[in-house]
Structures are given as C-alpha cells and as structure tokens.
UniProtKB/TrEMBL annotation:
Coiled coil: none annotated. PANTHER family: PROTEIN DINB, SLR1116 PROTEIN. A divalent metal cation binds at H45, H129, H133. Gene3D superfamilies: dinb family like domain (1.20.120.450). Keywords: Metal-binding. This is Damage-inducible protein DinB. Transmembrane segments: none annotated. Belongs to the DinB family.
Length: 159
C-alpha cells in the first residue's frame, strides 16, 4: 500500500467514526437500556483498541488489561476521546515516510502474548477493526428501526 492509501483509510475511519457518534448521540434516547449498554460497549471496544495500538505505534506502555475500559465511559466522553484519537491517527499517518509503513513494531497484546506487526499492518488493523464494529453498531440501530450513519469508502468519496 502507498502513503496515500493509508492516509485515505485513516480519513475514512475518522469520518465514519464521527458519523456513528453523531447518529448514536441523536438516537440514544430511542434505545432501550440494554441496547444502550451494548452500544456503549461496542464504541468503547473500538476506542480502546484504537488507543492500545496508538500506544504501540508510539512505543509507549498503556494501562489496558483488556480491549475495553475498566469503567464504562459516557457517550460524551467516548465521542470526545474518539475524535482526539482519530485526529491523532490522521496527523500520525501524514507525518510518516513511505518506508515507515514497513517498519516492524514489537509489542505485547493485552493477553500477554508478544507480537510483531509492521506499522502499516497496525494501521490497516485499526481501520478494519473499526469498520467491523461500526457494522455491529449499525446493525443494532437497524434492529431498532433507526438509520445508521454512512460508513463505506464509496459513501466517503461521495461526500
């Protein structure tokens, strides 16, 4: 993949995350308490993974013991922090040289298992992981008769 492709993937992720938080924020009162709990867990999981891999990319330790927060944040807190982290990823990718995407990063999964991924693989994982779970959130919204946010690359390109 090229620098431009990684940059675009991160831009799509940031746009799709903003759209999901917007739709959830406008419709949270239309979800049951159980649905709200599920939705917050989905959003928290996406965000926790984004933050964990942010730390891996920076070579910094993190405090996560699992791919979720120990205490469930509010939707407002999650939305603000997700915007911040998505902005960080956008700036981070912009600052990389083409060769940086091939650089291996050693880290430890929250399970304790050692791992090695290239920077580009981490970025691809973050983008694809978010897409998968935004789909989970969208399915929950659809089950409740709500329209999820647009989420695909083609939707992004139309904007």
């Amino acid at each position: 993949m090229t620098h431009a492709a990684y940059t675009q993937l991160i831009q799509v992720k940031r746009w799709a995350d903003l759209g999901l938080y917007d739709v959830v924020g406008k419709n949270l009162d239309r979800l049951t308490s159980e649905d709200t709990s599920i939705m917050l867990r989905i959003l928290d999981h996406i965000h926790a993974v984004d933050r964990i891999f942010q730390h891996h990319l920076c070579g910094l330790p993190h405090t996560f013991k699992a791919a979720r927060s120990e205490t469930m944040p509010t939707l407002e807190t999650l939305a603000a922090s997700a915007r911040e982290v998505d902005d960080w990823y956008a700036a981070y990718v912009t600052g990389l040289a083409e060769s940086d995407f091939e650089e291996p990063i050693d880290f430890v999964f929250t399970s304790g298992k050692p791992a090695r991924m290239k920077r580009g693989e981490i970025l691809l994982h973050v983008c694809m992981h978010g897409t998968y779970h935004r789909g989970n959130a969208g399915a929950l919204l659809q089950l409740r008769g709500l329209t999820p946010s647009r989420d695909s690359v083609t939707d992004f390109l139309e904007q």
